[in-house]
Amino acid sequence: MASTQTKVAVITGSAQGIGRAIALRLAADGFSIALNDLESHRSKLEAVAEEIKKTTGRDTVISIGDVSKETDVQALVDAAVNSLGGVDVMVANAGICPAIPFIDSKLIVRLLAVLVLIALKCSDCGRI
Predict the structure, then answer these.
(1) For residue 105, is pLDDT > 80?
(2) Cα–Cα distance between 83 and 105 in angstroms, integer?
């Protein structure tokens, strides 16, 4: 017997570009969507949430946060679980691409936190 429960997808970096496209596609495929990006992209996230609701009728939740911070990742997962009922798919899409020389050790740590460690942090939150 097929499940009638809606699946939930969490997408980091979903305010624009590839993340936005993934969110729209998964919503069109029937998923409820947990959207995430930085505070500076709040209005874009709200626009994505409105577009999803208008075009698909699917539920969304917005979680503002920096995925290089474990507490923000936990808050994102908690928002998805509490507002949408769980997490079935996790898309670690967030990324940064600074246009400066690659010699700053603080920048290297930030790049690793956003581009590599996010997958580990997301998979560890709530053992999803």
Answers:
(1) no
(2) 38
